[in-house]
Amino acid sequence: MGADTDLELLKKISDKDVLAMSEFYDIHSKYLYTMIYYVILDEEESSILLEEVFLEIWNNTETFDETIGGPIAWITRITRNKANNRIRVIN
Question: How many domains does the chain fold into?
């Protein structure tokens, strides 16, 4: 999927389009889960954190600014920050 598709999906998600969120999840969940797992090293905790990431995406699409970076950079930053914060709590 390209950045244009991601931008379109994020715009729909900002309007609380559940189908757009489902598609966005299908496209990006494996990548984000893998990123989380390599930090957390726990399957259950990684799954929980992945849900939190997508909840943050759902609730905060208005914070996405395409002049700063693309959708992948935005969701990667959210995911990385959440994973790093979680590992601090665990340790």
Answer: 1
Q: What is the CATH number of the domain that holds 78?
A: 1.10.1740.10
CB 24, CB 89: distance < 8 Å: no
CB of 38 within 8 A of CB of 68? no
How would you write the pLDDT of the chain (91 residues) with one tens digit per residue?
A: 455 699 999 999 999 999 999 999 999 999 999 999 999 999 999 999 999 999 999 999 999 998 999 999 999 999 999 999 999 888 7
Distance CA 88, CA 18 (A): 32
State the residue range of the domain holding 21: 3-90
